[in-house]
Write a structure and sequence with these properties.
Elements: E1 6-7, H1 9-12, E2 20-21, E3 26-37, E4 40-51, E5 55-59, H2 66-72, E6 83-91, E7 94-95, H3 103-109, E8 110-113, H4 124-134, H5 141-151, H6 155-158, H7 171-183, E9 189-193, H8 201-214, E10 219-223, H9 227-233, E11 236-242, E12 248-255, H10 256-261, H11 266-272
Parallel strand pairs: 5-10, 5-11, 8-9, 9-10
Antiparallel strand pairs: 1-2, 3-4, 3-6, 6-7, 11-12
């Protein structure tokens, strides 16, 4: 996806500084999404479109709602009893928050990788095969495990130790194992909430290289606090800010060239240049 694929903001009638896309290019669209925890507003009226086969970085200062927003894209906030989500998230033409939608099925189609590696206390093989097994997928598990580990750039390192416990791997390997586990159920979108923040620089580089490679097959939405990382791996960046009232709002969304070189909002410029954050 290139900047020329975006249509003009005014044509779509959406908020200023928010890039929009043609319908056939979109895989996800958030429409006026707000989130409350125990009645307290945390994210307000976020509307944004996510194009296929691209990397979208959610950036902004701590506490601006990045992690809260990314969890809206596959209904992970459903697992928080105090959370209440309003608005719509359209995935392939259907609102994932409608009563007809199965949250478990949504999470297979829109996978998630968390900040800290969280392998199951099972073998490497069983970690990757887990989703296919519990979902009753009629597949060759050996093939699924190998394909997923290859896509996660981990196969060559673990192919002779598939029976070893996943917790025996290094931190970077564990995170790639979690990515392989997410890929094993053949998702269309992969959400990543600061997937490299707990890793050393070498492992971080491996995760960044992997994200770039995976973007040819998957749409990836990543939360990152690292501006350099966002410029390296993302095609588009969405900037969230929270004022004194601590309510996260989307203030600008566009190609990296806009966000980091010619931001349209003064708050974006202040954030990406390090004057606030």
């Amino acid at each position: 996806m290139t900047q020329t694929d975006a249509v003009s903001i005014t044509e779509a009638g959406l908020a200023e500084n928010i890039t929009t896309f043609n319908d056939e290019d979109m895989v996800i669209e958030a429409r006026d999404v707000s989130v409350r925890y125990s009645g307290k507003l945390a994210v307000e009226n976020v509307s944004m479109q996510v194009p296929r086969h691209s990397v979208i970085a959610l950036i902004g200062p701590s506490g601006c709602g990045k992690s809260t927003l990314i969890r809206c894209f596959n209904r992970m906030n459903d697992l928080i009893p105090s959370a209440d989500v309003t608005g719509e998230v359209i995935y392939n033409g259907a609102n994932i928050y409608s009563q007809e939608q199965d949250p478990t099925e949504i999470r297979f189609r829109i996978g998630m990788v968390f900040q800290r590696p969280n392998p199951f206390p099972k073998s490497i093989y069983d970690n990757v095969a887990f989703g296919a097994r519990i979902n009753g997928m009629d597949v060759d598990l050996d093939e699924v495990v190998e394909r997923s580990l290859r896509r996660a750039a981990l196969w060559d390192e673990v192919k002779d130790r598939l029976k070893d416990n996943g917790l025996s791997l290094s931190g970077g390997q564990q995170q790639r194992l979690c990515i392989a586990r997410a890929l094993a159920v053949d998702p269309e979108v992969v959400l990543m909430d600061e997937p490299a923040s707990a890793l050393d620089p070498i492992s971080t580089q491996a995760i960044e290289d992997l994200i770039t490679e995976l973007s040819s097959r998957y749409t990836i939405i990543i939360v990152t606090h690292n501006m350099q990382q966002a410029t390296r791996i993302a095609d588009y960046a969405a900037v969230l800010m929270a004022g004194e009232e601590r309510i996260g709002r989307l203030i600008e969304y566009g190609p990296n060239s806009q966000i980091f070189d010619t931001p349209q909002d003064q708050r974006t410029e202040a954030y990406v240049t390090g004057r606030i954050g």
